[in-house]
Design goal:
Elements (H helix, E strand, L loop, with lengths): L3 H9 L4 H7 L9 E7 L20 E4 L2 H4 L6 E6 L11 H20 L17 H22 L7 H18 L4 H13 L1
Parallel strand pairs: 1-3
Antiparallel strand pairs: 2-3
Bound molecules: zinc ion (ZN).
Length: about 190
């Protein structure tokens, strides 16, 4: 089990980050995640037009393997980038765990379980507009954010972190479901939180 102190040491010493990740109790994500790896740099594989998927700001990502694109079940790999190790991003170890276990591993679970919502849209590969792709990814992310909100009670999370997640949820919902409006969203969020 890792402590806040271990987390803070990993912030200071990049060489100890993989060791820190190996210390975490990841038993609950084991069924869908085969490894969690420290990668000093982010990947550019999303639509870099939008800030939200800017590789410079990426903290973690779930990597689909080639077999998984063809529907073959393999547990996924999660990459953790340097940005994840910062007190601005994750003031507390609980924040870090929320990002890793409740968010990233949630993506891994949906992919592993072949949830129809994350089926790779081969047919749309050339015909889909980039805005459709974005909406697809944002919906996926909204579900992961909801899972974080639901699990906040069991984690020791910081106020700043919670605020950041709420804001992200509001931003994405605003794009994907503009008809909902901020009040409906607030209500939905509160229902998840309490
Ligand atoms: Zn995500």
């Amino acid at each position: 089990m890792a402590s806040q102190k271990d987390y803070e040491s990993a912030i200071v010493d990049p060489n100890s980050r993989q060791r820190f990740l190996d210390l975490l109790d990841l038993s609950e994500i084991k069924p869908h995640v085969r490894k969690v790896v420290y990668y000093p740099q982010g990947h550019y594989f999303y639509f870099n037009r939008k800030d939200y998927y800017d590789a410079e700001k990426m903290i973690m990502s779930t990597r689909r393997s080639i077999p998984s694109l063809f529907g073959i079940n393999v547990r996924l790999k999660i990459n953790v980038y340097a940005n994840a190790f910062s007190l601005e991003q994750h003031p507390l170890l609980g924040d870090f765990l929320s990002s890793l276990i409740d968010h990233e591993a949630f993506h891994a679970k949906e992919i592993y379980e072949k949830d129809p919502k994350v089926k790779f849209p081969w047919r749309g590969l050339f015909s889909m507009k980039s805005s459709d792709w974005e909406i697809l990814f944002w919906r996926q992310d909204i579900r992961a954010l909801d899972n974080q909100l639901k699990n906040f009670k069991k984690r020791n999370v910081s106020r700043e972190y919670v605020e950041g997640i709420l804001q992200r949820k509001l931003d994405l919902e605003g794009v994907v479901n503009p008809e909902k409006g901020p009040e409906v969203l607030r209500e939905e969020i509160e229902r998840l939180l309490f």
